[in-house]
Amino acid sequence: MDLRKQEEQISKWLEEEAEDDEEGSNDTASETEDNVEEEIHLNTSDSEFSNESSEPEDGIIRPSKRQRTQIIDSDDSLGDIYETNSPQTSNQGNQRVLQSTSRFLYGKNQHKWSSVPRSATTRTLRRNIVHFIPGPRGEARELQEPIDLFRLFITDDMLQQVVTFTNAEILTQRNKYKHESYTVSLTSLSEIKALLGLLLNAAAMKSNHLPTRILFNTQRSGTIFKACMSAERFNFLIKCLRFDEKQTRDDRRKEDKFTHIRELWQNMINNFQKWYTPGSYITVDEQLVGFRGRCPFRIYIPNKPNKYGIKLVMAADVNSKYVINAIPYLGKGTDTQKQPLATFFIKNITTPLHGTNRNITMDNWFTSVSLADELLQSPYNLTLVGTLRSNKREIPGKLKNSRSRAIGTSMFCYDGDKTLVSYKAKSNKVVFVLSTIHDQPNIEVTTGKPEIIHFYNSTKGAVDTVDQMCSNMCVNRKTNRWPLCTFYNMLNLASINAYAIYISNNLRNKKKPTLRRDFVMKMGDQLMEPWLRERLQTVTLRRDIKVMIKDIIGESSEPETPVHSVTNVRKICYLCPSKARRMTKHRCMRCKNAICGSHNIDMCSSCAE
């Protein structure tokens, strides 16, 4: 049976039932009462309702005054309608829907819900209409090379700032060394790019946590690391990496705990939003960047793989897994502007999406009824789908779990633009999902689950997928400095977004994209190439390292000067007197000393002995 037709029949039956109650009932209750209940009166007096526990005169026990549940069959004739004191279910193929006889339901805080949906024949709501084309923007639409895509997010200007602050730290650190050498010399932009290239190559080969001595062992990790720089230089540069001015840090830290890397982080986020238009469906969730060192806002989440680390609230596109925005959680000192913490994060992280009618999918840490109302209003104009915690006071008690309720049943209630569904997945588990994009109690025929839950399951995993991609190909190395840990994660996110644009461009041009591992390795090689060519010009560089560099950048070795055969080189015989030495081509068979033919020997005396 068509669900839309079924809902019309439900509404029609409720209206007819209400009219019958008004005509035949002797109840003198007020007509303005919201909680409309059907009551059974069998020659009872008013005293029966004043004392429900008393026994009637005729000895017949009447049903108590309770809300009853209507069980509606899926036949075209609407079937039989049963009234029971406890919820029952009726199979609608694979569909199971419980409909309350009460037109209105109330939560613990007296939040009012309706059990009747709006008419399904109305046109599409304005909040569900989106006008934009998702995908890369501007010059990003034409880029194919990994290095060009990486520069969209981590620009040369940003890296030049890193070079400046790193050199300031190098000047401080090299005073601790007795002898000045190239290992403790100042760095340059091309060398920092080469360092990032090495980190990306280590991530692609899943060797980011290997000790440095193994990374720079040519028998175990190849020649790419040793050709780029020495192991000592690699460790020294990572030790000296800095992202802000150290002299003014203390003053800035009083206002912002994230000031060590705030400017670099915000520039990258701005670039994320500049070069890509996300789709209609966005996921907001949290990412925990693993870190166990000292950090003023390190948190503990027991159900995460890393458990300890830096929490990032992140928004990502559902289809492409492109990261749109990310905000670090700075602990209890976060200025929420007198708002709930979850509401503060949602409003701030969706700032670039305000007024676009996009849908935001979130988990129960963020979702609330008040947030759903606020997001529908200007200037936000966003819809919401998210799970709701069972302790929320807006949830009616009728929708919560009960022993008599069958597994797989669903109950719906409505409040303006909001729809709340209660689905019993297990005997001891009821899932509550709030939506402002759905307005009908539609059920998937194949699974028997509400359409709202299917929509939530299909749009909830974008941030989790990004987190998984960061773990599979991770730049992070062991460190006790949280700004460096954050910088590693920035490289992970930049490579993911670069690959998302690369995939979009190739699909639009009907080309087959390469694997992500090959994409990241090529990106690392392209970052290292300018530095390798610069290093190749070093006069004092060892010959074997020059050969490694030429193999990596694809240059053939210079042809060596041909060495003439020993027999073709004329030498002076060492046995002849100094005044009469003759030139000869003959040599000793063993030591190759020159021997002229006048001596008639094949080996010198020392070799013959």
Automatic annotation (TrEMBL):
Residue span, PiggyBac transposable element-derived protein domain: 146-499
Domain of life the protein comes from: Eukaryota
Composition-biased stretches (Polar residues): 42-53, 83-95
Residue stretches of biased makeup (Basic and acidic residues): 1-15
Compositional bias per record (Acidic residues), positions renumbered to this chain: 16-37
Start and end residues of each stretch annotated as Disordered: 1-95
PANTHER family assigned to the protein according to its UniProt record, in alphabetical order: DUAL SPECIFICITY PHOSPHATASE 26 (PTHR46599:SF6), PIGGYBAC TRANSPOSABLE ELEMENT-DERIVED PROTEIN 4 (PTHR46599)
Protein name: PiggyBac transposable element-derived protein 4-like
Native source organism of the sequence: Bicyclus anynana (Squinting bush brown butterfly)
Organism classification: Eukaryota, Metazoa, Ecdysozoa, Arthropoda, Hexapoda
